[in-house]
């Protein structure tokens, strides 16, 4: 359909084209206009939530104008685009970010003040967009920020969950999950009711012969669900480029409900059909690093992948180019294996719907996709049962079998008579039932495979994907170390530190070129600079202390060392090691004379993070932390020497308060288990130090900042296998200090010991898979070194400033440029007016 306005009328359009506000007066005009018209309120009926709504609408109007121009520019340039497919985008709040990226926060602050509002209170009104679990989802959000800021033509594709990650409440020390309904008022999305795709499920495959005498497969029957696009504008920092995040929402193909059924009296089944359709995008699966293999999850994956590919292919077909040019126009990145069906779907589109030959189609597919692996944990590697795929996606299963056949044939040609190699690398696992190994399918269907930190990329090449390195050669496998956006994680979360840094680097350029941070190292001995640095950290700690008081009711001393571990609760991340260490500290303090006690370093142990609702052990860990807190925090002998806090409902906006207030953060996973970690980067960037294992990005952080500026401990990844073996065969004794901790828990000091028996026996009786006992002593010793180092505040501040100055490498801008050059082969499209 041709929808362009004819030439003669275009002048009128240009004359009346919207421009958005350009100054404070204009901003206030827009806010009041939105209050009085869009919201149908007035100055006598305008609370903070109305101010938030009106302010957001004013900024949204500006974004959407830039968004339109950016999309026109990309279409006109007709170059290659990147599509980032992720089941999770953990965006957090949008308003503060939009104001800062557009560079109008100061204007909004004074405008809102004139209208009677404090900007901080207005920002606080916004509900987090929490469409993700943890690291993987937040990484996708940082990538979107960098892609837009670097002017890359790129889209994100995801699902518009009606419920994001659950809200966590702590009741009597236990986690309770509450649904996160976040769409009541969301000014940041634009429903595109005209952009819909019909998605097919179930049915069967019929073979027929076409006019040319060729056998073709027809996928017929089954059920159809409609995908509706919702677009979220993604503003770049200091550039007019505004990219798009397209989220799909499911609804019944017949509209509201099936009118035929409805009119014939079959109300119930017509409403049931509607509800079944809407269920697909209803809720985010709350598991981090765990695959549970549920049918609805597979439906989500296909629904999202099929809608996105339809959209991408539709856009390509408009260009009327030959199919072989598809990979010159389109790069698709698979964020983990969750979107791997896209490989199969594109092959299906090309051979079944567009009539290409298998080999020609497969070439296009492989050159289009890249696959990022985020974990080596076996329980997180996706497998789908063959019968389930057969039932839900019968044609796709046939194509998967063909992909596997041709792949195994090529392996056999290259490595004749290595029978067990074929079994090891087969995309189909010969189990009962048979399973499709999604990571293998993703590798075979992509031209590049990357890990997310150096150690992790080495590990996947030498362990889980070793055979594939032999088969495809080493060049297919690469590393792209993760990064974080300095806009949200420094400028937005820590405005005073950002200001102080710019006063020394001479500009805000470090926010777009993070290596500029190294300029502050020249000022490490500048008295006034150091004083301001310390004041900022203190102020951030005072702010967190207020939050702790308000949310947990605990008084903490802001001069104490704040020791923070905030991340998803998982045995491999070892919050249990941390809390056992806290108990040890408590017992040691209790055993001291008052005089000796008075010499000890004050500490606040701060925990936060969600446990997957079905992860019983993780819930026990939360319970133990809370029970330890309720004993320690009211112990008169201890006072301010030790406080233990569990912060409820850790999320992106809380991270923005917690991270800038940390002195020490814990990244203490069993070596080899944390693929990268990204909060480690955020903490150091905000002037905190790390206690951590030689794992994931900790290793590269050490390389960058220097080993004197980080507290490393514990066994190395090369040693893990042997140590586990020693546990299994009883050649291991539990550290005596850890035994004392266990004895105290078993005495009932922290409540009914029955509740914590499993945490203890996992270490003592069941092989200590995460090597808590092996690392305990070295952890305690290193914590003592931390106390000693913190006592020398001058040296501590030197470490912090030096570390921050050397963190440039960890910008997600560097990371995105590496993907763009090494994997996507895309170029920025720089608009006039980009800084
Ligand atoms: C997730 O958050 C990560 C990996 C996964 O396989 C899944 Br599922 C969820 C995390 C890793 O655990 C982190 O180490 C890593 O920093 C992050 O992904 C981003 O790469």
Automatic annotation (TrEMBL):
GO terms for molecular function: glycogen phosphorylase activity; pyridoxal phosphate binding. Its EC number is 2.4.1.1. GO terms for biological process: glycogen catabolic process. Keywords: Allosteric enzyme, Carbohydrate metabolism, Glycosyltransferase, Pyridoxal phosphate, Transferase. The modification N6-(pyridoxal phosphate)lysine is found at residue 682. GO terms for cellular component: cytoplasm. PROSITE patterns: PHOSPHORYLASE. It comes from the Eukaryota. The keyword Transferase applies. Its cofactor is pyridoxal 5'-phosphate. CDD domains: GT35_Glycogen_Phosphorylase. It catalyses: [(1->4)-alpha-D-glucosyl](n) + phosphate = [(1->4)-alpha-D-glucosyl](n-1) + alpha-D-glucose 1-phosphate. Pfam families: Phosphorylase. Allosteric enzyme that catalyzes the rate-limiting step in glycogen catabolism, the phosphorolytic cleavage of glycogen to produce glucose-1-phosphate, and plays a central role in maintaining cellular and organismal glucose homeostasis. Belongs to the glycogen phosphorylase family. This is Alpha-1,4 glucan phosphorylase. It comes from Cladorrhinum samala. The lineage of its organism: Eukaryota, Fungi, Dikarya, Ascomycota, Pezizomycotina.
């Amino acid at each position: 359909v041709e929808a362009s306005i004819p030439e003669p009328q275009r002048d009128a359009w240009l004359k009346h084209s919207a421009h958005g506000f350009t100054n404070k007066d204009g901003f206030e005009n827009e806010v009041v206009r939105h209050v009085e018209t869009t919201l149908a309120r007035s100055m006598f009926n305008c609370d903070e939530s109305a101010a938030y709504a009106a302010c957001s609408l004013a900024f949204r109007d500006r974004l959407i104008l830039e968004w339109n121009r950016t999309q026109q520019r990309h279409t006109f340039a007709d170059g290659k685009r990147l599509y980032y497919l992720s089941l999770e985008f953990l965006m957090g709040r949008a308003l503060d970010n939009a104001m800062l990226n557009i560079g109008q926060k100061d204007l909004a602050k004074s405008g809102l003040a004139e209208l009677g509002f404090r900007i901080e209170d207005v920002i606080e009104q916004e509900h987090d967009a929490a469409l993700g679990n943890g690291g993987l989802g937040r990484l996708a959000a940082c990538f979107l920020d960098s892609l837009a800021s670097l002017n890359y033509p790129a889209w994100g594709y995801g699902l518009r969950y009606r419920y994001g990650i659950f809200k966590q409440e702590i009741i009597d020390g236990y986690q309770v999950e509450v649904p996160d309904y976040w769409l009541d008022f969301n000014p940041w999305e634009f429903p595109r009711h005209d952009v819909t795709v019909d998605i097919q499920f179930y049915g069967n495959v019929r073979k027929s012969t076409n006019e040319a005498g060729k056998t073709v497969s027809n996928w017929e029957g089954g059920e159809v669900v409609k995908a509706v696009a919702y677009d979220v504008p993604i503003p770049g920092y200091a550039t007019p480029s505004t990219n798009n995040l397209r989220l799909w929402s499911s609804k019944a193909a017949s509209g509201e409900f099936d009118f035929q059924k409805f009119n014939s009296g079959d109300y119930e089944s017509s409403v049931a059909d509607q509800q079944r359709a809407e269920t697909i995008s209803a809720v985010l699966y709350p598991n981090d690093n765990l695959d549970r293999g549920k049918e609805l999850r597979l439906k989500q994956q296909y629904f999202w992948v099929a809608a996105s590919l339809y959209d991408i292919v539709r856009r390509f077909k408009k260009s009327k180019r030959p199919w072989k040019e598809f990979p010159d126009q389109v790069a698709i990145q698979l964020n983990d294996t969750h979107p791997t069906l896209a490989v199969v779907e594109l092959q299906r589109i090309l051979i079944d719907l567009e009539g290409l030959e298998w080999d020609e189609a497969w070439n296009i597919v492989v050159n289009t996709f890249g696959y990022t692996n985020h974990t080596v944990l076996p329980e997180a590697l996706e497998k789908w049962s063959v019968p389930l795929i057969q039932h839900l996606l019968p044609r796709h299963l046939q194509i998967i079998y063909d992909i596997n056949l041709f792949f195994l044939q090529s392996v056999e040609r290259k490595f004749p008579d290595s029978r067990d190699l074929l079994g090891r690398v087969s995309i189909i696992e010969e189990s009962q039932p048979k399973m499709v190994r999604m990571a293998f399918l993703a590798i075979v269907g992509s031209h590049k495979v990357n890990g997310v930190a150096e150690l992790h990329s080495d590990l996947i090449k030498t362990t889980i994907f070793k055979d594939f390195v032999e088969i495809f050669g080493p060049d297919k496998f690469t590393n792209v170390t993760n990064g974080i956006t300095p806009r949200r994680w420094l400028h937005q979360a820590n405005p005073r530190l950002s200001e102080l840094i710019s006063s020394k680097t001479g500009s805000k350029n470090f926010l777009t070129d993070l290596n500029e941070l190294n300029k502050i190292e020249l000022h490490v001995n500048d008295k006034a600079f150091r004083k301001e640095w310390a004041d900022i950290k203190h102020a951030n700690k005072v702010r967190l202390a207020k939050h702790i008081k308000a949310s947990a009711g605990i008084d903490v001393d802001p001069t104490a060392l704040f020791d923070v571990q905030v991340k998803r609760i998982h045995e491999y991340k070892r919050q249990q090691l941390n809390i056992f260490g806290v108990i040890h500290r408590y017992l040691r303090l209790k055993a001291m004379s008052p005089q000796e006690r008075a010499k000890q370093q004050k500490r606040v142990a701060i925990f936060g993070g969600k446990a997957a609702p079905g992860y019983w052990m993780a819930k026990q860990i939360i319970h133990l932390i809370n029970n330890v807190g309720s004993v320690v925090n009211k112990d008169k002998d201890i006072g301010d020497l030790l406080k233990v806090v569990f912060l409820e409902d850790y999320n992106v906006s809380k991270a923005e308060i917690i991270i800038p207030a940390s002195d020490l953060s814990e990244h203490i996973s069993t070596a080899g288990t944390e693929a990268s970690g990204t909060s480690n980067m955020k903490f150091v960037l905000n002037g905190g130090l790390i206690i951590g294992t030689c794992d994931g990005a900790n290793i590269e952080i050490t390389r960058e900042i220097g080993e004197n500026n980080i507290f490393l401990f514990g066994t190395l990844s090369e040693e893990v296998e042997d140590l586990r073996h020693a546990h299994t065969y009883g050649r291991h004794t539990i550290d005596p200090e850890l035994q004392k901790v266990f004895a105290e828990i078993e005495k009932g000091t922290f409540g009914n010991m029955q509740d914590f028996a499993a945490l203890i026996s996992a270490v003592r009786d069941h092989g200590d898979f995460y090597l808590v006992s092996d690392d305990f002593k070295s952890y305690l010793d290193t914590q003592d070194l931390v106390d000693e180092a913190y006592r020398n505040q001058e040296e501590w501040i030197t470490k912090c400033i030096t570390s921050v100055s050397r963190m440039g490498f960890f910008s997600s801008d560097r990371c995105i440029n590496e993907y763009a050059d090494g994997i996507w082969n895309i170029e920025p499209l720089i608009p006039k007016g980009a800084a």
